[in-house]
Request: fold
Amino acid sequence: MKKSRNHRKVKIVGMVEYIQEAAKLARYEWCDDVKEWAAIVSELPICWSQGRTIEETRLTLLEVIEEWIILGLQFGDEIPVINGMRIGYDHKLCRKVRTPREATLTEHRSRASSKVKVAA
Reply:
C-alpha cells in the first residue's frame, strides 16, 4: 500500500474493484419530470445514469463509470482516490493513449507528408 499526500494509506486496485467501490457511493433519486430513476456519483464529476428501475439505473451506472475512467485515462486525467482506493495504472503511459481516430489521422498525415516533394 502507498501513502497519499495526506498520509492515509491508498490501496491499488483493478478497474472492476474500483468501479464497484465507486458505485457504492451512488445517490439514487426518483425524477418525477422524466418518470425515471437517476443515479449520480458526486466523487466522479459528470458521472450519472438514469433508468426505469433502480436495477437498470445501477447497471447503466456501472457502464458509465467504466467509460468515465477510460476517457479520463485517454485524456491523461488523474482518476481520483475513492474510499482509499486507486486504480493501478502508469500515468505516463496513459497520457500517450490515442483514440483510433487520432491514430488514423496521424497515420494519414505522415503518409501525406512523405509524398510531398519540395521544389528546388
Observations:
- Residues 108-120 have pLDDT under 50 and may be disordered.
- The first strand starts at residue 2 and ends at 3.
